[in-house]
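The data layer described in this paper is built around a simple, fixed record for each protein. Because each token names a local backbone shape, the row as a whole describes the fold. We quote a single record here, exactly as it is kept in our systems:

***
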Amino acid sequence: MNSQRQSAVYRSRILQPAAERRPETHPLTWRLRDDGQVVNLQDYQSREGYLAVQQVLNEHDPRAVIATMKQARVRGRGGAGFSAGLKWSLTLQGGDMPRGYIVCNADEMEPGTFKDRLLMEQQPHLLIEGMILAAFANNARYGYIFLRGEYVESARVLAEALVEAREAGWLGRDIAGSGFDFDMAVHTGAGRYICGEETALLNSLEGKRANPRAKPPFPGQSGAWGKPTVVNNVETLCNVPAVMLRGADWYQGLSGGRTEDGGTKLYGASGLVNRPGLWELPIGITGQEILDRAGGLRDGRALKAWLPGGASTGFLLPKHLDLPLDFDTVGKEGSRLGTGLITVVTEDQSMVSLMRNLEEFFARESCGWCTPCRDGLPWTVKLLLALERGEGQAGDVELLDKLAADCGPGLTFCAHAPGAAMPLQTALRHFRHEFEQGVHYPKGKAHADPIPVGEV
């Protein structure tokens, strides 16, 4: 599919007409055009564009910006859900500190996720404005949009928007007459999932192999080229202009009391649904409401399970559809909100085959730095292939349990292996019988004695 055709497909994925989107309720998408064309600089400026930059750079100090972000409870929209204001407050600042960098993590490699692409391809100036404000708050002199290399259309649109912003004086020296200097560039990656981990991203940005770094030091103290660096997701940064323009209390009120988190979220649905796409909704909306907006499942299929936010989140069941989709609530159910784009699994889909497909992806994308990830994930794939073919051996399902546990949080160098383990652990918990059906027993035996894990 060529980039022009591919872009047209994704431009149709925002399934809310302009009449339903207002600046007071849809800070991320109210400017989007129904025809899917790019919101250029003129259009953006006519709709409050760069007004927050003008006000903040001339009327506030960086500490006030950070305080507002904290009060608004803007949590990272890339998957981790860490407080953006708190992250900014931990960045080394001060008159004697070197000016650092703002890096936008646009390496959108999570399977089932395409929300950042929408923002970059249709209203790039919202991201640019958010990065200027983040740079001001964090004493940064330069910014990079680290973009997934396959997003060719995003790269083109962003590059043109940067030229527009620079010519209009929104980038470069003395922005809006404030005395603040800042510029930025697009950096396209080589297509590695591991670059979604912020320190691996920074290594790749510096021209090194994309392996995660040891922490501490954290990027806020020593990031790109040893300078203080803040790494935020596209959607996170796109929230900043509206927060600074309308205030923390307004942003908090957008959730309508559904959750303690503030703001809206780009939610979406993919898989065997009638209307896959994206919606900007109050954070804390339920999975059922998203599924209803997606028109339900195709051909009257029944729902077996669903991933709440990408392939690295844990499976939830139909009974969980009425839970608020916020970071803390989903976490208590043994999963993660992740990117907030749900993927449905229907009753006629094999959980073993689905997991084999996912684990092949995670095994391929491992950087190979640590043993549980480098060796454990390919071993997991080997076991799942055998079970999928009905050639599994006694003890294979128990061994999958152990391999997933060995990849858990705190046991590997970064979060890649725990992300691969979470869907497997939850699939084994909820659908163990499907995995056990793939074990081949000797003729005449209903079962075989499992091999003790410690003796394998």
User: Anything to note?
Assistant: Confidence is low (pLDDT under 50) at residues 1-12, 448-456. The chain has three domains: 3-253, 264-346, 351-455.
